Amino acid sequence: MKKDTILSGMRPTGRLHLGHLSVLENWRRFQERYNCYYMVANWHALTTAFDDPGLTVEATKEMVLDWLMVGIDPEQSTLFVQSEVKEHAELDLLLSLITPLSWLERCPTYKDQVQQFKEQGKDITTHGFLGYPLLMATDIIIYKATLVPVGEDQLPHLEFCREVVRRFNHLYKKEVFPEPQPYLAEVSMIPGLDGRKMSKSYGNEIPLFSNPKEIKSKVQTMVTDPDRIHVHDPGHPEICTVSNFHKVFNTAAIEELEEGCKGGKIGCVPCKKRLVKALIDHLTPYWERRQELEKDPDYVWDVLNEGKRRARWKARQTMQEVRAAMGFEIPGST
């Protein structure tokens, strides 16, 4: 019997890239041990992309295909679209009635993100963006998740969620929600082609669903040691993007490659060729799986509709408890 429940999700904002791969591979491992809910966070996407709602439907299909190709199993995990479970909106509203505004205003990333978008010519100072940590808390607790996979930078958001839980349970004298705990899963930090964080906005990403030709083209543009002019010059693999990729996707050869680089025995071109092969070897089984999935154009929607059914069943149970605790349970109501 799986005792703990995990909730995690992604925004459908474009093609997934290699920076997402270790997260998905963790998701695949989680489903063996936990009750897993994996959510397409399309309402969250609209907190910043509210002027481009049309992108989310096709992006949802592409993203979920990537989930499935990596091994997320709809028989073991519940995959669903956030906006299809309307109970999220009801709980978010009810929680907004008891959550102090100051809790939202102290979110450590709020002002930075507002400024970043302002520099891009976009005003995101909306009620929805200010309240997105509360919507995140809603997503977690409506399924009574006990574990939430997070990075250390996301711990303040989870602590906010825990504060909301404590306040609700205290106000209504019922332990409706458990306090979710952080699951600090190990995630490989994959740099972008230029050494910065891999991001579509930087244009430095390698798509997760790709092909050998695209992989080769992308790897050829990777930044290496700028001080290494000639093949026999000693290199510095610790500052080389290609070396960082080898550490993740070619671990068996990393010691040999680093020694060869430092000793000027292997050049950047052959090093990149070996990375191309390692990436293709790692990703080919996933690509083949996705090509099989794409033969049925309705499969993703069938998976998400079944996930919606299961997610709504759990969310409705939770909302019955919430309404009873808050005094909204009307006799005879269904």
TrEMBL record:
Pfam families annotated for this entry? tRNA-synt_1b
In its UniProt record, a GO molecular function of this protein is: tryptophan-tRNA ligase activity
One GO BP annotation here?
tryptophanyl-tRNA aminoacylation
Report whether Transit peptide shows up as a keyword of the record: no
Q: What is its EC number?
A: 6.1.1.2
Give the UniProt entry's GO cellular component terms.
Answer: cytosol
* Superkingdom per UniProt: Bacteria
Which terms are listed as keywords in the entry?
Answer: Aminoacyl-tRNA synthetase, ATP-binding, Ligase, Nucleotide-binding, Protein biosynthesis
Provide the reaction this enzyme catalyses: tRNA(Trp) + L-tryptophan + ATP = L-tryptophyl-tRNA(Trp) + AMP + diphosphate + H(+)
State the similarity comment.
Answer: Belongs to the class-I aminoacyl-tRNA synthetase family.
The UniProt entry, under NCBIfam families, shows:
trpS (TIGR00233)
Question: What protein am I looking at?
Answer: Tryptophan--tRNA ligase
Species source reads Syntrophaceticus schinkii
What is the gene name?
trpS
